[in-house]
Batch of 3 targets.
Target 1
Amino acid sequence: MPCNCVDSADNVCYISGEVTFARQRKAITVIVKKAYHLYFECKIGDQDKSWAPHVCGHKCATDLSQWLNGKTRAMPFVVPMVWREPSIHTTDCYFCMAPPFSGVITNKKKWTIVCPNIPSALCPVPQGEGIPIPKPSKEFTINSDEGEGESTLGSPELPACTKAHVSHVTSFSPQPYILIQEELNDLVHDLELSKSKAELLGSRLKQWNLLGKKCPNFFDSQLSSAVGTFLQKGI
């Protein structure tokens, strides 16, 4: 897709997706590429494409290099920014949908920018509790292909980082809590619901698939009985 974007791709860090001013930009060196590969288990790619950033921010470059040398414990995210070729500028292009960077955004204001999270630019997944932190290898070599940016365009499978992005988002997404009969009884009691409101609550929970399978008609029979008991005792 021809690149004719509002912002230049090289105003953004390839690794974090953050706005990067000229004095903060660093070249993506072979050391950064190696550290990136070892930390995130995927390679920096598409460096021959105009729609991908070709620079990284000073902080990301420093943190990765120090991690490789055992001086930094972890990056702030477990999956980096994932770049793919945009399908259309108006709805799937990070550099057209984000606010203009050049001449408008200052260093103090860049943290207020809300950038899009779209198929062609998947935002990083933050490092969270329970997510293992990679350990740097004590011995590593710089291969001849470390200096070349690999293109993932036309690959039959998703890039490794994209797979990791989907995997982590899926693994750490909160799951709905399913109520059992006793818990719903307690909830009605604690909220001091009338019989009609308790039956409505049970109906809604069942509609939203938040009731356990063992109480399909719970709100019609046992819940009504329980509410009646609460009301009679003045609990």
Target 2
Amino acid sequence: MDTTQITNEQAEQFARDARQEMQDGKRQFNDFLFDMGKRVQDGKTLSDGQMHGLKKFVVREQEFEARKAQQAAADANAEDCPEGTNRLRGEVVSVKYKESMYGTQLKMVLKDERGFRVWMTVPGRIADMVDNPLDDLRGATIEVTATITPSDDDRVFGFGKQPRDAKLVALATPAQPTSPAPVVEPPSPSVQPVLPKKQSVDTSAYKAQREADLASEKAHDAARTAAGTPTAVNPDVLATLSDEDEVKVSVNGADPITMPWKTGRVVVETTVNGQPVGVVVGLGAQQSIPF
């Protein structure tokens, strides 16, 4: 599907028109088209993916209109669909399964050599002659006798009943004959099959890193246990602080950082040289312990 010939302006105008047609009940509702039409109407920019999807809709619409025009031209030269029992010869233009009160039936549209088209059940003897009727019968030429009722609103279309005396004249693409499955002989006991060697994966680096991580975790756990519960420096002063007060925090002699104090907060978690550290803070005095 070539979308390169569609400009962004054409795609946006298509979205506007499609949204309006859906609102007027003239087009089947589509979530994507309706949303794109609204975005364009609101002046929003479409993403590249949205624009590409919109252009695909435009191309499909153009192809559909081209097929309609082609069919209309063919119908103009077609004979009227006959009524009653007739012998038909033509091309199968579509095949599909249809659910009905009689169960699932295989239906087709046969375009007669005289131009008119007839919807009818695929004769069983024709369906049994191919492996995949949906694919193999499309484009096939067949002959069949059927009782036809012309459509009330289309002079070149009718409905066929009681298809009989069917004959498959030719397939559009010859179906490939079904071949029996090849017989696989077991290997001779003297011949051992050669299997590919299983590639080994070096996991030593991963194991070493994992052991180092576990050792670091154990060291940190031991440090936390040894530190116990830290006590605040200048506890008398800290007890007087309110939420609005600020304190200065200094880690290992670095420049102090001013931060807000929260009632009851004594230990600040931070990181020094990649290691977690608990900092006990106070006014004019600081102390660091492993965390």
Target 3
Amino acid sequence: MRPDAEELALVREGKSVAAITHHRERTGASLLQSKGAVDRHPAREPPCAWALAIARRFHQTDPVDDLHVPPGPGAPLGIRVPAGELVEQFSRSSGPGGQGVNTADSRVQLSFDVRATTALSEVQRERILERLAERLSGTVLTISASEHRSQRRNRTAARQRLAGLLRDAVIPAVLRRATRPTSGSRRRRLEGKRRRSETKRSRRPPGPE
């Protein structure tokens, strides 16, 4: 039997399996009320198992893997952020979604505590805290992604965005050293000025005889 609107609302609100089962028993619903329900929900399956199936459908997500930042300036060996240091939160998105907009938790917020992480060296940590200071809430960097209809694709987009920010933030600053102009550059500058002066002189109208 398909879940009704009230049951789905209970699941999205994070209600327990017992609450969902109580709702089904209170409304007098039965696993064998609709045609073909025996095939989909065998009679030997208790109501709590059916409620668990609903909960898994709405709450189960793929396990979070370690975040890998490719090698680059400031991180020659790359950066590997342990999965335990990444926090994902899901909410309803107001972006594209068709019939699923505002009904599915497709919006993803990926949070990463820069100060508490063990994936960064002290130099990398200070660079990130300094360069991303405007984006930090305390020492936590949060990335949001809601441009896709699928939660899975938004999760991937958020991870890619976080990896890109970390990669760019750890790049060491390039110090510009003051240098004296070379003899060749001075000669070319004077020749260019001379040619420009001759061009302007040739454009002047001829003077009176």
